[in-house]
Amino acid sequence: MISAESKQTIETLCRDVDKAAVQDFFARMDEDYFSTFSPGEICAHIRMSCALDSRHRIQFRVTPRESATGGFDIVIVGFDYLSEFSIFCGLLSAFGLNICAGDIYSFGRKASRPSPRKIVDVFSVSLKAGETFDEAKQRDLENELQTFAHLLAANEADQARERLNRFLTERIEKMNEALSGLLSPIEIRFDNRVSEDWTVMETHSEDAFAFLYAISNALAMQGVYIHKVRIRGAGREVRNEFYIADRWGRKIEDAHEQKRLRMAVAMIKQFTRFLPEAPDPGKAMHHFDQFLDKIAEQEFPDHIVSFLADTEGMNLLAHLLGSSDFLWNDFLRIHFAELLPILEDLSKSNLQPLELPSELRETAAREAATFEAKKRALNRFKDRRLFMIDAAHLLEPQITLMAFSRALTELAEAVIVQAAKICYQRLAEQRGRPPGVFTVCGLGKFGGREMGYASDLELLFVHDGEETTPFFEMLAREVTEFIEARNMGIFRIDLRLRPFGEKGALSTRFEEFQKYYSANGQAAPFERQALIKLRWVAGDEPLGRRVETHRDAFSYSGAAWDWENALHLRRRQMRELVKPGQTNVKYSAGGIIDIEYAVQYLQLLHGKGHPGLRVSNTLEALDQLRNSDIIGAAEYETLRAAYLFLRNLIDALRIVRGDASDLVLPDETSEEFKSLARRLGYREQDRAKDAALLAADIAHWKQKVHDRFLSRFK
Questions:
Q1: H helical segments located in 432-521
Q2: Rounded to 10 degrees, what is the CA torsion of 546, 548, 554, 557?
Q3: For 403-449, how does the pLDDT look when each residue is reduced to its tens digit (9 = 90+)?
Q4: Count H helices, E strands: the chain?
C-alpha cells in the first residue's frame, strides 16, 4: 500500500493537476506500482495520463540512459485496449530495440468515479547493432503508436495485428534479422496463488530479438487479457511474469486450458520466426491463430503435432497460410480433420498422379454404396487431391507451371469421367438405357490443359441418338450438379460455350453440332475460334473423335477470317472490361489474351496447311508456329516468356481468394501488391523493392506483348 508520506509527496508534485484525477490514479493502480517507481516518475505518469484524449490516445516519452551500456528508457501511457501490450512490443522490435527490462501496469481496481481504464508501460531498451534511434525515428515510433491505438479504439484489433505483422516483418527483413532465437525452448509455469484476481504466467527462455512480442502476441491472439508484466533479463536469459485473465476476466485455473495456452504460446513463438517466409505475414499469423484453435478441438497423433511444431512444418505453414485465404477457408478449415495429416506428406508430392483414375474408382467403390454417398466420396477425393496440388505448387519452386496445369487437368478429367459414369448408371437404372451414346469435350483452359487456380471447367456435351429423348439433357444437368464447386471457383462447370449459348440445349445432338458449326451455320466468328480449345475428355471415345474431326474441318477450313470483327472485339474488351486507371492482367493492352488471340488467329490462318497447328494448348501451338517458320525466333521467345510470366501472375492473384474474377492488379504501393511480389518469388530484403521490380516487369511484358500484337494484326 502506498505510504502516506509518498502519497503526500506525489500530491505536492502534482499540485497543478486535477485532484480527482490524482486520487483516481491512486485508487486504480496496484500497490506494487507505487514501490516500483519514484514519486517523481509517478507524477510524470499522472500528468501523461491526464493529457490523453480522443486525438491523443497515447503519451510517449524517451529518455537516453546514461549507463555504460547505453540504451533508452521509454514510457508509454495510454488508454487500455486488448492486444495493446503486444503491439507495443512489436513496434519496439520493428524500430530495432531490444527490450531488456520493463514494468507494465494497467488500472486494476474499481474506479472511485467513472473513468476509462489506462496503462503505464515502462521499458528499458537497448539498440540492435547497426541501428539508430534518433529524434526522427522517435517521432516515427510515436506516430505508429498513435495509429495503432486508434485502430484498437475502433475495435479493429485483428486489422491492427495484421498491419503490425506486415510492418514488423518488413523492418526485420531490412535489418537482416533471422529471428532464429525464437526457436529456443521456453518454460511456462502457471501460479494461481500469488494473486487473488490474476493468474501469474511465468516464462523462462533464452533471450531473443522480438521474443517478448512473440509471447505477448500469442496471449492476445488467444483472447488473454494482460494486466501487468514484469520483464527481467539476465545475460542471455529472460524471465517474465504475466498477470493474466481469460477473455471473461477469470483466472486460468483449468489444467486443460493451461495446457492449451502453453502449447499456443510455444507454437506461436516459433511460428513468428517464419513470418518473413510468408508472402503476407498478416494473413499468415491470422490463419495460424485459427489453425491452433482447430488443433485444440480434436486429438491428432503426436508425430503430426511434432511435425507441425518443428522447423520444416512451421516453414511450410508460413508459406501456405500466408499465401491464400482460399486454401484455408475452402480446404483446411472445412476439412481439417481429413486434410491436416497430408501436410506431413506435401514434401513427397511430385504432382504425378499416374494412378489417379483407378484410385478414384477404388475410393468411390470402397466408401460409397448409394448415389449420394458416391457424390460425397468423389467430391471429398477431389478436394483432398486439389489441396495437395495447389499446396505443392505453392511450396515447391521446382514444380513448373506446366506440371501444375497438367496435374489439375488430369484430376479434372478423372473426376468428370467418374461423375459421368455414376450419373449415367443412375439415370439408366431409373429410365432405362437410351438409344445412342454421349461424349463430353473440354473447352477453354480445361480443353487446353492450361488450368490454374480458380479455373472453371468449360464443357460441351454431345450425343448421338434420338432427337426426342430427354436422357442426355438430364445427364448433362446431373453431371453439372454432381461436381461441387463454389461460384467463380475452381472446377465450377460452365456450359455457356455450347451451341446457342444459354438458350441452347445442355447436350447437343451430333447432327445439330455439325449444322451449327458449318459454313452456313449460326456459329459466330468467336465460336469458330473457341473450338480451337476443344478436345475429347469423357464418354464415348469414337463420338468424341468425330467431334474433334468436325472441329478440324470447320475451324481449320481455310475460310476467310473476319479480321475487322475480331479486332473490333479486342478493342471493345480493352474499352469495356478494363476500368480507367486499372490493369487487368487478362484484358488490358498487353494482357494474356493478346498472346492467346495472336496464337489462335495464326492457328486459324495456317491450320489448314499445317496440321501440326491443330492443338488446344497455347505453348504447344507456339512451338508448332515456330517449327513451321510462321513466327521468328525473337517473336517466339517474347511470346513464350511473356505467356509464362502472365500465367504465373494470374495464378498469384487468384490463389488469395480462389476467385476466377481476380484479374485486376492491386495498387503498386499497397500491401497486397507487396504480397503478390513475394508469391511470385521476388525476394529482396525490402518488400517495397520487390513491388517495384514486379511493377517494372509487368510494364515490360505488357508493352512487349501489345507491340507484337499490333505489329501483326493492326
A1: 444-447, 471-482, 510-516
A2: -110
A3: 899 999 999 999 999 999 999 999 999 999 998 999 999 999 999 99
A4: 28, 13
List, for residues 78-89, the tens digit of each pLDDT value: 999 989 999 999
Round to whole Å and give the CA distance between 217 and 53.
26
pTM over 0.90: no
**DSSP assignment string, 622-661:** HHHHHHTTSS-HHHHHHHHHHHHHHHHHHHHHHTTTT-TT
> What is the pLDDT at residue 154?
95
CA dist 204 and 114 (Å) reads 38
Alpha-carbon distance of 165 to 265, in angstroms, equals: 16
Q: What's the CA gap between 185 and 604, in Å, rounded?
A: 65
- Which pLDDT does position 335 carry in this prediction? 63
Alpha-carbon gap, residue 181 to 184, rounded angstroms? 6
CA distance linking residue 383 with residue 365, whole number of Å: 18
Output phi, psi for 459, to 5 deg: -120, 155
| Relative orientation angle of helices 563-576 and 592-606, to the nearest 10 degrees | 170
Please tell me the distance from the alpha carbon of residue 459 to that of residue 444, in angstroms, as a whole number: 9
> How far is it, in rounded angstroms, from Cα 314 to Cα 644?
30
Tell me the percentage of the chain whose pLDDT exceeds 90.
Answer: 63
Please answer whether residues 252 and 199 qualify as being in contact, where contact means their C-beta atoms are separated by less than 8 angstroms.
yes
Closest CA to 72 of 141, 118, 149, 25: 141
Show the cell assigned to 626. Answer: 515456330
Residue 482 CB burial class (10 angstroms; 0-12, 13-18, ≥19): buried
Give residue 601's identity as a one-letter amino acid code.
Y
In 80-198, DSSP assigns E strands to: 97-106, 118-127, 186-191
**Cα gap 390→407, rounded to integer Å:** 10
SS3 64: strand
List 202's β-bridge partners, or say none: 189, 241
Phi, psi of 273, rounded to the nearest 5 degrees: -55, -30
Cα 419–420–422 angle (5° rounding)? 65
CA nearest to 238, candidates 260, 269, 259? 269
